[in-house]
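Troubleshooting: if your tokenizer reports a length mismatch, compare your output against this known-good record of 250 residues.
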Amino acid sequence: MSLKAVLFDFNGVIINDERIHLRLIDEILVQENLQPQKVQERQRSLGRSDRACFQELLKNRGRVVTDEYLNQLLNRKAEAYVLELEKLEKLPIYPGVEDLIYQVRSRSVSGGDSLNCNLGLVSGALRKEIELVLNRAKLATYFTVIVAGDDITTSKPQPDGYLLAVERFNQTYPELNLQPQECLAIEDTPAGIQAAKQAQMQVVGVANTYPFHMLQRCCNWTVDYLTDLELERVQNVFSGGEGQPTVSEC
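Known-good structure output:
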């Protein structure tokens, strides 16, 4: 088995914007004459799609949710997100993202093999939000497959987004014959990690949002920063050169 694709999460892995999202959700709740998120609700929001978050928050507050109403709130939140980013002179892209993308695409690993994987992105964020950031950060051309919150009705920790990414890779590159076990996911939350694991993928947990020790219990690899990820070791595990790390459930 070889490593054929690396799939990035978006919020909390590529861009440090979780606080912006949580604040915008609270602002919309207040505008709708509803209580802002409680501490436990904020924790549950991390790693999940805006659609899933709003559905649960509105249900908890006794508000009847129609598709039309939900889509209206999602669009308002997306528009507010765009305005927030326009205020920033520099996007809060996590250090090491560009370097890791470069390494995944072109780094030579031990044995003379080339680690030239396909890059994908799997997120619950709306596509307009993802494309805005990737285009502004000049990263858009690197991701051949993007699965956004618009593309699926479920949310992490369900594996549907990751499985759809594999399907889209195979539609675009039939000769790739990509299997979930040939993918590496990069995640920062328990919900995202569970989603990738349920899709039968190995997972790197990056401690951007949760402590290292919490992610270490349920990831194949855990790093404090993306720059700490040893791609040679990862490739060696996929190639059978090392025993696969044992992990437990989050």
